[in-house]
Design a protein that fits this description.
Chain B: InterPro entries: YpzH. Chain B: It holds the Pfam family YIEGIA_cap. Chain A is of the alpha+beta class. Chain A has two domains: 148 residues, no CATH class; 131 residues. In chain A, 56% of the residues lie in helices and 12% in strands. In chain A, the strands form two sheets. Chain A has a four-stranded antiparallel β-sheet. Chain B has one domain. In chain B, a hairpin with a 4-residue loop joins β3 and β4. Classes of the chains: A alpha+beta (295), B alpha+beta (61). At the A-B interface, α6 of A face α1 and β3 of B.
């Protein structure tokens, strides 16, 4: 035991607790299983250890020891690859896949959360060593909430208005409002679609949102999340019963057609609103200088 | 070149309107056409699209 023992222990506890908090299983059901959680808690523990050990190293003027953080960075990049590979493999077995953009977003989140753990444990230990345990705890709690803010991305409800629209047929063409979804040939299948199908219109709130929801990955994420939350009326060998999202080329609205097992309009609107805005789908054409000048 | 979609079969009550190069199922009535298309859709894992009252195509997406 030396003067660094308790600060290090506190940093590791706060850092690992932050990782456990960020690992909570939500409606997306990932990670669900104990073994998946153990992997991430173990990596979170390592990240907390690295973050907290950096402080005594600096205080003892052992600056070269800080270079192990670069090793940590490459290790956590490996976490991203691991998540990407696992989810891509699993995605082929989903009735409504997540899509590559969503998977990439999840993989990035898993990597970045370890950096947030490093940050949290680092400031906790730093606070403890520079002042006392209470300052360390307060610094840890502040870092915890900063991590929480940084972890929470935007939601679709921030950029679009969601409205219900009954799906309908014009001949063999399926429409949600005036947006063409697909051609369904068999009358029997059309009846199924009308019985179980639900349609929603996503109206972009601004020009940036129009480009963001046009992204195919973002649209697939909507379909996946709604199907996960409300169930899906389909099985393998029924490709006609597939949820789809199509775009109105005139005004950028998106027509979402889903086949949920639970036909609850309010809940579906809420779920669509809570779909994360994928980092890789976000576009900001209005940030271009040309657009700014015109406005 | 990756072909994402292709026609697996065509089902028709009017053989004159179906092009060559695809498996064609000739039917006498609309009801027979619906029955055969339903079976083909399930067997081939494709989607039946109606081009007209007389022609269905089963497409792999």
């Amino acid at each position: 035991m030396n003067e660094y023992t308790y600060p290090i222990v506190l940093g590791i506890i706060i850092g690992t607790s932050t990782r456990i908090y960020m690992l909570r299983t939500d409606y997306r059901q990932y990670p669900t299983y104990l073994h998946g959680k153990i992997i991430h808690i173990a990596l979170g523990f390592i990240a907390a250890g690295l973050g907290t050990l950096a402080v005594p190293s600096i205080l003892k003027e052992d600056f070269t020891a800080v270079t192990f953080l670069t090793i940590a960075a490459s290790q956590f990049r490996e976490v991203r690859n691991m998540e990407r590979n696992t989810l891509t493999e699993l995605d082929s077995l989903e009735l409504v896949p997540r899509g590559k953009t969503y998977i990439e977003g999840i993989a990035i989140a898993f990597e970045s959360r370890n950096y947030l753990v490093i940050f949290t444990s680092l400031v906790t230990t730093l606070g403890y060593l520079l002042a006392n345990i209470w300052v360390g705890l307060i610094a840890g709690v502040i870092a915890f909430f900063i991590s929480k803010i940084l972890m929470a991305g935007g939601k679709l409800e921030d950029i679009v208005d969601v409205e219900y629209a009954e799906p309908r047929f014009e001949g063999a063409g399926l429409y949600v409002d005036n947006i063409y979804i697909m051609n369904i040939g068999l009358p029997e299948r059309r009846e199924e679609v009308l019985r179980y199908g639900m349609g929603f219109i996503l109206k972009p709130k601004n020009f940036d949102a129009r480009s963001t929801i046009a992204n195919l990955g973002q649209r697939q994420a909507i379909l996946h999340d709604v199907s996960t939350a409300l169930g899906v009326y389909r099985d393998s060998g029924t490709p006609a019963l597939v949820p789809l999202a199509k775009r109105d080329l005139d005004d950028g609205r998106i027509g979402v057609f889903i086949l949920p097992q639970e036909r609850d309009v309010e809940k579906a609107i809420e779920v669509i609103g809570k779909v994360p805005t994928l980092e890789n789908a976000i576009r900001m054409p209005t940030e271009r200088n040309v657009m700014k000048r015109e406005s | 070149m990756d072909i994402e979609k292709f026609i697996l079969a065509a089902v028709t009550t009017n053989p004159k309107k179906v092009p060559s190069g695809v498996a064609v199922f000739h039917c006498d009535t609309k009801e027979e056409m619906d029955t055969i298309t339903t079976n083909l859709e399930a067997i081939l894992d494709g989607i039946a699209h109606a081009l007209s009252e007389e022609i269905y195509i089963i497409v792999k997406h």
